[in-house]
Amino acid sequence: MLLEVNKLNLWYGNRHILKDISFSVDSGEILCIVGESGSGKSSILLSIMGLLPKGSRIEGSIKFKGEELLGLSEDQYRKIRGRHISIVFQEPSAYLDPLFKIGTQVEEAYIAHFGKSGAKEKALQALKDAGIKNAETVYRMYPHHLSGGMKQRVCIAIATVCDPDLILADEPTTALDVSIQGKILSLFKHIRDKGKAIILVTHDFGVVAEVADRVLVLKDGCIVEQKDVYSIFDHPEHPYTKELLSSL
Q: Quick check: helix, strand or coil at residue 120?
């Protein structure tokens, strides 16, 4: 198993955010975590990445390729982030630095792990793999030159340039129109088909139907249902899952 989360509990101050969260994800599958805003979906991803805010407290276990992640030092985490586990955030405009060209930003993670040799070639290939046809032109542009959908493709290129085993995606299509959303989801399926694992956070069961292999339903920091995508749609058991499905 690529990633195993067991009895994960998270507190922000006195607020109990995640309560006994347990799940796993293996190579070549997409796990969708679905639930309404504030249910704790993004906190699961931040816990995996070791990017929790100061003052938070975490208990339980997060194992990646059998190695325990909780308790790692920041230096140890830096060797994993980008190289083995990467993340795509919801709002690409907030993630991309307006002062640096796209090429520089895609290269940054690669250089951090592998050095400068071949960085440009890898960055251009990552942009092409993310569905950007005019990669050479986009490479030389600044973020403000690009549309929202193109910026999100750039963020996916940044997340995949080091060929990580696990990609975390936090509501990556929420701000995009339907046609661009479909293309981004197709890109995630292509990444999955190359043997990578993806954990995709969403509140949209339409997205779940499009890409998920398995589904985890989260409510108020608790898992209320967890099963394969066909069973979720054909035989939902928990009232909350039924409620979310009825909103489609």
A: helix
The strand pair at 85-88 and 30-34 is best described as unpaired
Domain spans of the chain? 100-159
How crowded is the C-beta side of 126, counted as CA atoms within 13 Å? 29
Handedness of CA 27, 30, 34, 40 (dihedral sign): positive
> Helix, strand, coil shares of the chain as percentages rounded to 5?
40, 25, 30
Beta bridge partners of residue 214, listed in sequence order: 31, 228
pLDDT in tens, the chain (248 residues): 999 999 999 999 999 999 999 999 999 999 999 998 899 999 999 999 999 999 999 999 999 999 999 999 999 999 999 999 999 988 888 889 999 999 999 999 899 999 999 999 999 999 999 989 899 999 999 999 999 899 999 999 999 999 999 999 999 887 778 888 888 899 999 999 999 999 999 988 989 999 999 999 999 999 999 999 999 999 999 999 999 998 77
> If you write DSSP's letter for every residue of 21-59 in order, what string do you get?
EEEEE-TT-EEEEE--TTSSHHHHHHHHHT-PPTTEEEE
- Quote the pTM value: 0.95
Residue type, 45: L
Cα distance between residue 39 and residue 17, in whole Å:
8
**Secondary structure letter of residue 157 according to DSSP:** H
